[in-house]
Each structure stands twice: as structure tokens, then as C-alpha cells.
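for the record, two folds in this file. i put them one after another cuz i was lazy. first one right below, seq on top, C-alpha cells after. the second one comes after a little note so u can tell where it starts
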Amino acid sequence: MLNLKKEAFDKFQSETDIKKFLDNIMKFNNYSFNNQILIWLQNPDAEYVSSFKTFSKMGYKINKGAKGIKIFIPNFYNLVKINIDDEKYEIKPYYLLNDEEKKRYGDKNDNSISFYKQKLSGFSLGNVFDVKDTNMPMEIINQELNPVLNNNKADEIMDMFIKTIYNDGFKVKYKEIESTAKGYCDFENKEIVVRKGLGSLMQLKVLIHEYAHSLAHKHLENNNRDYKEHRNQYETEAESIAYSVAKYFGLNTNNYSLNYLYSWSKNKDFKEIDDSFNTIVNYSKRIINNFEKFYNRDLELSGGEKSCVSV
């Protein structure tokens, strides 16, 4: 996998390549960092990928001759709990059960053998397909992947986004800021501070950027020296996370963040790039997933229709 990553990073020849990869974070949010690398390496222009089974369930077909995109698929096996007496039990893989034990396990009225948990046994290669290799109309995907966010929608999302931040242990404060900064992350007081007077869209962009700092850079809480020494790296990571999350929300994104990431990555060795891209992918996914949990929970409580994009 390291060789594939190196090959992928070596292909980042321009800001456009960086943009394609960061856009994939939003489009392929359910896939791991390693699988996103594999998808980008095989098809940088992929719009939406899923398995043959998923497309079939939605009622669409894979085009004849379409070439699959290889990804790593986790393989699991079930562990079961076998009660020996009131105090003792044994944990055993399901595939090691004998016929009599399997019969007891399948009996709903027999609790002597029950499901315990799943355990990862390894990974195998599987195929996913891009939507362009199916008969699914592209406009259906575009409606989901390319939303447009206005100020009214930003207000709606911002309220839920602030609740997401609070749930991670940080408060949001609006203050006058003496410097030119639009906001900052105060680790000592567990606050994300936003400059007063900003419009809704800019407020949301600032919140995303500083929320990224609060999650990805907790180790800087009592280490201002480290931040000063590696400021470009940390700001590049936060800005790239903000780009991906903003794209997910349908916010207009500035290309300067892509130029920044490209310029920074050109002069770094493989491990530094790999670590930073791993941080960018994982924390972009975490922020999106954290928001989705609150949004979906609020939706269930209100009984309303979901208007936010979900990928």
C-alpha cells in the first residue's frame, strides 16, 4: 500500500490534482483513506462510486465492458459466547461450532450460545464502479453532490454545526478581534472564537476551519512553540479539512487553500505528506459524520424533511 500511496502523491502535479483528491473526501466519505487513495489512483475523475450490489438495489445496471475500481474490503467473522454455567463462559468463532452448537445458536428460545461480536480477519480486493459506468442519470447524483448554499441555508446549518462543536467539548463565542484574523481556536478555554459582524457564510467557513484545529491539533494545547515551528503544516491541514467540509455543505470554496496545500506538499517527504493527508481525510470525515448524527437526530425529533445533502 505504501508504494501505491507514493505513486498517488507523485501524480499530484498541479492544484487541479489536489482539488480532485480533496473533492473525493466529500464524495467518498464512507471510504477509508487507503481506499480513497486507490479510487483516485485508478480513476481521478470518478464522480460517485458504489458496488454492483448497491447500484442493482437502486434499480440501475453496470454498462457492458465497464472496468471496476479495486478497493480493500474488510472481512469479518462472528464470535459467539457459550455459557458454561452462571459465572463462566467461553468465546469461540462461529465457524468452529459443531452441528449441535450451531443448532442451539439458531434457536431463539435457547440463550446458551449467543452472538458476542465481530472480529476483523483481514482484507480482500473487491470492485466498485463509477456512476458514469452505469445507466444511472448523472443529474440525480449532481443534485446530491453539488448543492448550492445560500445565507438562509447557512443559518440553518450553522445552528446544528455549533451544537456539533459543543458536543466535542468546545464553546463558540463571538468577539471583537484586534488582529486581522476572522477567528481562532482557544485550546486553554475550550473556545472557538469568531469575529463579530461576519456574514453567515463566512461565519460558517471560520467555524469549520477552527473546528478542524480543535479536533486535529489537540496536541497544541500547551505547546505554542510547536505551532509556531510547524504553522504552515497545521494551517494547511485545517484549511484543507475546511475545504472538504465546506464543499460537502455546498459552500463556495476558495482555490487559495488548494494552492497552499500543493505548494506545501511539493517540498515535503513522503511520510510528512502521508501523515497530513491522513489527518485531512480522517478529520474531514469525522466532522461530516459528527454533523450528520446531530442533523439526523434533529430531523427525527422534528419530523421534518431533510434538506441537507447526504453523501
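(here's the note) second protein begins now
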Amino acid sequence: MATKRDYYEVLGVSKNATADEIKSAFRKKAKEFHPDLNKDDPTAADKFKEAQEAYSVLSDDSKRKMYDQYGHAGVDQATGASGFSGFGGGFNTSDFDFGDIFDTIFGNGGGFSGFSGFGNSHSRATRGSDVLMRMDLDFDEAIYGTEKKFSLDVVEECDECHGRGGFDKEECRTCHGKGTITTEQHTILGSFMSQSTCSECGGRGYTYKRKCSECNGKGRIKKKKNLTINIPAGIKTGDRQRISGKGNPGTNGGENGDLYIEFVTGEHKYFIRDNDDIYLEVPLTLTEAILGVKKTIPTLYGNLKLNVGAGTNSGDKQRIRGKGVDNKYNHHKGDMYVVFKVYTPTKLSREQKSLIEKLDDTNLETDEIKEFAKFVRNND
């Protein structure tokens, strides 16, 4: 699947651009890349269509909000490009006032002969749009992998009419099979020809005498499907898994789009995950921290004995190689980091207080404590 450019980058505007700024930017791109005006650049048509697609999303508040939140995955270009669900009906030249653009180009002058070089795309086989859904996984499912069964509402081609939407095809009487309507506007400066999609046939160039009753003329039917997927170990939030051919159906014999599942993983009470590394906070008593200890700690793969050195402080960290996430999704294995936290007792018996006072009499001052005491004396 080709990687799409960011829509804001395509139009050359910031993410905080106003509706007027977006419209103005699209006008400039249309003027620069329209194939009838830029015949020297072989990529002009593709750039023009790219600008159309970007404008169709960013000029619509709801689509723009979805795009800002989820990127290309949050919107769907239903006309068959490889976008995700949410674009709606795609971009149509009748949705934008091209007269404004060519008024700017020609200064309201005459003689522009309309749009050339655009075939009737409604008769071509086009790939179905992709579908994006989210799936929640708990911590263990994400770490160790699992099998998930789920239901999905999918739109499929109508079996009754085979996606056509009707029977007994005939030439459209309004556009006479062209799929477009050409209108001419006369002004004192000349004539201006414009072309728009035929509203009767939707640009296909033909209609049907009898509408399909099964799909009500839409050519598609919504169905619920049960699917099962195997999720590899190591999935994290934001990772996606593609299921080929389970997206929306294509048109005119085009292949189905794909289903993308985006995962959201849960947290653990003790383990903290950072990509493929695992962090674990281990509590130590004051005695364990001072004297050192062999401490049994949990890992993702069972318990192990860890040597804690004498004089350990809160925040000290110890690395255990290879005990992080064994990620089958990206073929990487992380490490585990043990972070120690020394707990100072708040309730002491008389005997314990006496022992602490005796310990203090031994003058167990560290170099840091001595240096700080010297600073205090010099500061007086």
C-alpha cells in the first residue's frame, strides 16, 4: 500500500490553518497542477488529485477532526483509493467552486474549454476502501500473544445484483452516456465552459430500468461476520495487524480493501512496560538496603534470585538482560530493569529505637553527609 503524505503538507498549511486558509491553499494548488493548465509536468494530474483528496478532508470539520485524531486511518475515501473508512463519498468536482479558481487564472476571461483528460472513473474497477477497528488487550494477552474471536459489521457486494444496484442497464438520458454535464456561461468578457458530474447517473453514464430491492439500489449490503485472528506476543498500543480482503468491497469488479486492527493494551499492577523493556519497583527494608540481600523477584518468565549489594539507595537500578518482552511482532527482545525503593519504618518499638540510637553512636556518616555538614558550618 502506497504511503500517503500528510494532508496539511500536501496543501502547504499548518495544522492550525483556518477554513479560508485551507480553501485559498487549495486554489493555488489547483491553479498550479490542474492538467489543463500544466501540460509540461507529467505528475501534475497525480498532484492535483492529491490536493483534491486533502481538501475534501480538511474542508470538512468532522472529517478534519477524525484526521487530526487518527491520521489517514480515521478517514475513508469511498471512491476507491487506499484511504481508511471515514472519507465518505470522496471528492467530487461539484463540491468546489472551480469557477473561482479559473476566474483567478483567466481574470474572468473567456475561452477556457472545461476539464480535459479526466475519464469516467465511475466505470473503472476501483479497490474498496480499508477499514480500521480498535481491539483492547489486557497486559498478559499483549505480552504473551493470544487468539481473539470478534464480530465485525462489514459492507459486502449485494449477491442479488452483483453490486450493480439494479437490472436492465440503459444509457443515461440526461448525459447520454458521458457521465458529465457541460454548461456554458456567457459573460461580457467571453464564454466559460464548466463540467460537472451527472446527477442522474452519478457519473456512470448509465442507469437501470429496475432498482434492486435487496440493496435498495446501493449495490452493497451490511452484514455481521465472525472472525478469528492470532495475535503475536509483544503487541503494544498503536501496533496494527492487517487482515487482507476484509475491508469494504470494490466497485465495478475491484478487489476488496483490507481490515486493519489497531491494538490498545492494558497495564499491570507491578510491571511497567516501556516498548520492549520492563521496569519493576522492588521494595527493600532499611536493613536489606544497608547490609545487602539475596532477593527473590518476579519476572515475565517466573521468579529469580537477585543479589542486592550493600548500601543500596532508593532509585538505584539494576539491569537484567533478556528478561523484557520477547516481541514476535518486531523480532526484538527487551531487558528488565529493577528499581529499588528503600522503605524507612515509621513505627518502632522501644527496643528498635534503642538499637537505632546505638547505631547512630557509631557515627555511620557517609562522605556526602560530612560534606553537607561542612557546608552548613561554613554558611553560618
